[in-house]
Write the structure tokens for this entry.
Amino acid sequence: MSRFITVLLFGCLVVQMGISQTVTQDSLEMMLGKAKTHYYNGEYENAITELEKALLYLRQLKRTDQVEAYKYLAFSYVAFGNRIKAKEQFRKALVLDPELELDPATVSPKIIKVFEETKAEMAAAPVEPSEPTPTVYRGERRGFDATIRSCCVGGWGQMYRGESSKGKKMMIAWGATVGATVVSWIMTSNREEEYMNLRAQGAPYDDAYNKYKIWYNIAWVNTGIFLGIHAYNLYDIIFRRPSTKTSMSEFDRCFICEASKDYIRLGYEVKF
């Protein structure tokens, strides 16, 4: 009994770890949007901070977002006068998107010059074939990572692959049933100990035994519910594919609230 309770308590700890380490696609896109705002406001240091923070979750970024992050990181380093780091970021962007071009109408000649130098250097010294290229994170690798996460914590994998709403609901249900199961088994253990003590003392124990049986049944019901939710969570992550966006209500939306010493910007963004 105590071993089973220990396992369930460990499961609660894993839930907390999963929640703390999960970053949704919406959050990552907001990081990129915030970084671009910093860049266009001339706050290059803040832009670099936001972009490096987003790149910590590289595997969760869409390929196009990875390119954007490396591109604006390079822009910011050029603004700082650090051509070496700027070229390093341009190389990463070009590895992901060899057809990448910069628009002279919106990008300064100084940045374009560094970009063209990087392309020329890469053409003269191609990237070694053995060097890993972080390209397919939304395919098989991402599916495997999502499955591993859902095996540990219900809903974590769904959130990882971009199904934020479904993942949150599933994680809440999974966590609630884990908590209920742990509590009910603890109560069962306490009632069993009380009943056994009364029986050993030769005192009446019928009432204590009935309470023990009630909690024992509740514990198994909660365990069954938990196992059912976890089984559905695994079925969903392994056999079902994320739904595609087909209507206006399903596009990415978020509130924007930014403030600095010079302005306050409020808005509601819809990404098509």
